[in-house]
Amino acid sequence: MQAKTPEQSRTVMTDLVLPSETNPLNNLFGGELLARMDRAASIAARRHSRRIVVTASVNHVAFNRAIPLGSVVTVEAKVSRAFKTSMEVYIDVWIEDRESGDRAKANEAIYTFVAVDETGRPIPVPEVSPETELEKERFIAALRRKQLSLLLAGKIKPSQASELKALFD
Ligand SMILES: CC(C)(COP(=O)(O)OP(=O)(O)OC[C@H]1O[C@@H](n2cnc3c(N)ncnc32)[C@H](O)[C@@H]1OP(=O)(O)O)[C@@H](O)C(=O)NCCC(=O)NCCS
């Protein structure tokens, strides 16, 4: 299978924040943002693998900045690294200033998707070939994040988390 660049899976979804999607402070409800990110990330994983994909885990979410009612929100997802059957998808969330049109980073998240066949069994995916400095940084750190996610899920032992151990050596 030929490696693909993160750009080849890049998925951008832009939408408004409507009143039914807000919390009592009139900011975007966290669950609504999680759903938007999941949708964009699953399309990115599908573009990378050209397979059926399922969400295996949400590794990290940072709600750094509240997103007010009426905001124009852009969710941008790219596959940052692929392993054997799983893919890490990095999601950046931007909001757009109404008058200037300038974009500001609001949130980010990292999801893991697994490519599966029609019976739900994991199947191999192409590798990722990062191009930009940021893509290279995210690619390198993805292995550490995978090990942390598997460790927290009880799927590997601490002794198998070599990348995490290296952080403390
Ligand atoms: C995700 C799923 C396919 C994994 O199946 P599994 O039997 O655990 O398969 P494996 O153990 O072979 O894992 C498959 C890959 O997922 C990775 N993985 C599994 N759990 C993970 C986790 N918590 N974090 C990171 N990666 C994980 C494994 O490391 C493996 O990656 P690799 O092949 O690239 O090395 C299966 O658990 C599933 O179908 N879950 C439900 C998915 C779903 O319905 N999502 C929507 C939410 S309702």
From TrEMBL:
SUPFAM superfamilies: Thioesterase/thiol ester dehydrase-isomerase. The keyword Nucleotide-binding does not apply. InterPro entries: Cytosol_ACT (IPR040170), HOTDOG_ACOT (IPR033120), HotDog_dom_sf (IPR029069), Thioestr_dom (IPR006683). Its EC number is 3.1.2.20. Residues 7-119 form the HotDog ACOT-type domain. Signal peptide: none annotated. It holds the Pfam family 4HBT. GO terms for molecular function: fatty acyl-CoA hydrolase activity. Keywords: Hydrolase. It is an enzyme of class 3 (hydrolase). Belongs to the acyl coenzyme A hydrolase family. This is Acyl-CoA thioesterase.
